[in-house]
Amino acid sequence: MGAITSAVIAVAAVILGWITIEIACKPCLEQGREAIDRNLNPDYDPDDDIRAPLNPASAPDDATASSTAPKFVS
Q: pTM of the predicted model, to two decimals?
């Protein structure tokens, strides 16, 4: 009976450890799983995944002009 109890406790500890790691590292694990899913998808085209302009200076003037303008204090 002691061996069964020890086995049940060991399995419960492994399950709780797995849940703890899943909760603690959730953002990192989600990004990794998304990357794996994209790489395994035969219909995925990396050229279609455009998230930001390659040259931020070519962005519309109203979006970048106010944040990149130098400010001089006299």
A: 0.48
Q: pLDDT by residue (tens digit) across 14-61?
A: 999 999 999 999 999 999 999 898 889 888 777 776 666 666 666 555
Residue type, 62: D
In the numeric block, the tokens 């995925």 are attached to: 44
Q: What number of helices (H) and strands (E) belong to the chain?
A: 3, 0
Angle made by CA atoms 3, 8, 12, in degrees to the nearest 5 = 150
Question: Which residues, 6+ apart, have CB-to-CB distance to 52 below 8 Å?
Answer: none
Spatial separation of the C-alpha atoms in residues 59 and 53, rounded to whole Å: 7
